[in-house]
């Protein structure tokens, strides 16, 4: 009958009727909702305590709610549970409006929880490749491999220096107690250097030396070894090579170092599509495998310059493609991240 009365009323109007779900009609008149069933969920016991589906109703007392949340989250019997586990436990005993949302907010603001929880999200931040150097040995990485067994000559560390363009590297045995002044004879002037934030490299000596020699020093980000990711990767390769040499030839690691440097510089690099030796010198390195082959034609004068420029352009193209592939691959597994002035972050 009610529908008939409405039809009689609206038949004189030119209109179209569209269905609007009740759950989407958030401004519906409360009087049009039959809440008898919901009212039945609330009960009062003999002591005047309000219950909702056999759960204690917590009034809108923020201090009381905080005490409940503190006990459910920070006590030694809960040890900083996540928001979902905490909600599942609390909802068995308590109820209040927007309870799940308040629990999630509370847990997200817990300092201890934020410090210790495992991050299951994609790593934050897109890959930001370093600019490709313009020429050979103009831009290098430096780092140390330390903690090695002390040799008879007293060496216990390796100074790793890598050209970012050609990937060619030098591995120099050094001693931990060397001072910054000891390294100045090996220092290359008028080049850009990206290095690890070791105490040696950030010492006043190196600051003054770079000013005197006109060298541009770029420090890697603190707690972010990926800034010098290339040298970190070479360190790993070098350590593997030295272990293999020690196991195969039973020699000391400092005696294997020249062989490891030769092997690395003569190994194919996918990003270059050639070996570092060839990228640096413009010709392939002769090894026992090709000593019987005829020698290469020697290039002099303008032809040598032209050949070197063409090869550098070829290397640039290869490195750009390699960086593009790497960025495309890694960014699929990362999420964008932006910071606003005044934001607080964990390191």
Automatic annotation (TrEMBL):
* Record GO biological process: DNA integration
Q: Which stretches make up the Integrase catalytic domain?
A: 129-284
> InterPro entries given for it?
Integrase_cat-core, Integrase_H2C2, RNaseH-like_sf, RNaseH_sf
Q: What Pfam families has UniProt attached to this entry?
A: Integrase_H2C2
What GO molecular functions are on record for this protein?
Answer: nucleic acid binding
Q: Which domain of life is it from?
A: Eukaryota
Protein name, UniProt field: Integrase catalytic domain-containing protein
